[in-house]
Structure formats: C-alpha cells, structure tokens
Amino acid sequence: MSVKKTMDKTMTTLENAKKKTLKAYNFVNGLSVRNKANFDLSVKHDKSIVPLWKYGFGYNKEIRVMPVILCMIAAMIAVCTAMKIGNNSDK
Predict the structure, then answer these.
(1) How far is Cα 77 from Cα 69, in angstroms, rounded to an integer?
(2) Between vectors from CA 29 to CA 23 and to CA 31, what angle results, nearest 5°?
C-alpha cells in the first residue's frame, strides 16, 4: 500500500471521527431537564366549605445538562490530580 493511500485512509477516518464527535456534542448540548410543579395551599375550617386562606403558585425550571457534565468532569480531574499529588508527596 502506498503512502498516499495510507494518508487518505487516515484522513477519512479522522474526518468521520470528527463528524461523530460533533454529532454527539450537539446531542448532549441540546439536552435539558425540565421540572414543572403546581402547588395549591389552603387553610380550611372543619365546618366551612370555603377555605379561610388559599395560595397557589407554579414552579417551572429548565436545567441544561452540558454545564453539569462539564462541572462533573472538572471535579473528577481535580480529585484525580489531588490524589496523584498526595501519592507523590509520600515518596
């Protein structure tokens, strides 16, 4: 096999890997977790039908997944680095 064919195969493999990595990144970047809830609070007397006090509110929060993943990776790197530094100082 010639050098040119080998380089062409290598470049094709790298381009395909780059495309797959970008697709995975775009997929994870688009993920989010949505949390919705409605709360109704009321105070009632035993003998009345109408509540004495009533309050209701809604909760709607969306959390992006990518920053959470990046923070977890950074924390794992920090812990691994700290463990490595701790092991090297004992020697």
Answers:
(1) 12
(2) 110
Q: What would you measure as the largest C-alpha separation in the chain, in angstroms?
A: 94
Per DSSP bridges, beta strands 53-64 and 32-43 are: antiparallel
What number of helices (H) and strands (E) belong to the chain? 2, 2
Question: Is the Cβ–Cβ distance between 62 and 34 less than 8 Å?
Answer: yes
Between CA 36 and CA 63 the distance in angstroms is: 11
Among 36, 35, 38, residue whose Cα is nearest residue 64:
35
Distance CA 38, CA 42 (A): 13
4-63 pLDDT per residue, tens: 888 989 999 999 999 999 999 899 888 888 888 888 888 888 888 888 888 888 888 888
SS3 64: strand
